[in-house]
Amino acid sequence: AMMRRALSAARRVAPMGSSMFRTGARSVASTPVVCYESMHGAKSDDALAKVGMDYGSADHYFEKTRLEPGNQGSKKAFTYFVLGASKFIYASAVRLAIINAVATMSASADVLAMASLEVDLNGIEEGQVVTVKWRGKPVFIKHRTAAQISEAEGVPMSDMKDPQADAARVQDSKWLVVMGICTHLGCVPIANAGDYHGWYCPCHGSHYDGSGRIRKGPAPLNLEIPPYKFTDDGKIIVG
Questions:
Q1: Annotation marks residue 184 as catalytic
Q2: Burial readout 79-104 (b: 16 or more C-beta within 10 A, e: otherwise)
Q3: How is 69-90 classified by DSSP, letter by letter?
Q4: How far apart are the C-alpha atoms of 97 and 172, rounded to whole Å?
Q5: C-alpha angle 32/35/36, rounded to 5°?
Q6: Which has more pLDDT, 32 or 198?
Q7: Which residue of the set 40, 143, 204, 207 is catalytic?
Q8: What is the pTM assigned to this prediction?
């Protein structure tokens, strides 16, 4: 209906015989662009009034849903409150998730109890090697004699696969504390055995001397030194 009214008004403005309505041998309806061109100029408002175009909403939805100015303060405050509360809830959820993840990675009470091991050295005689368990792994504690200490200190660095002085591997020359795990494939060596009177790994033939240094065989490194310290009452704390 709107298009018919616009066409009727345009026909009243332009002559019927003009090129606006003629295509070939017959006259046809003009396009809306022609009507727009005819309305350009100083009298465009009058032309629009003649055409009768309505640029408002056909269903008047805008007028029905429009909010009156000056009455939105309380609603904005409520909107901001809801948004802020939702962000706070999200942040709290993320915080709790991080705390739970960190808590699961923390060591339990029984694991912490195994973190250190106290060993009484008073019952270990010279030349004797005892094996204790620390964190599920064997640890060798050797009470060395003066001859064993002298032999370990007199080895030249050029004869070692993993050069390391004996003094760098002990806190007290009488006591040697090493991990009881072969550095080749993780077997447990035999104490007071091998070509160098230290430890011998029967799995693949690695020989360690009295300082736990690899001297022969496929093992690439010396026996590892765990963290430990001596106490005043003749004990040692490993870990």
A1: no
A2: eeeeeeeeeeeeeeeeeeeeeeeeee
A3: TT--HHHHHHHHHHHHHHHHHH
A4: 48
A5: 90
A6: 198
A7: 204
A8: 0.54
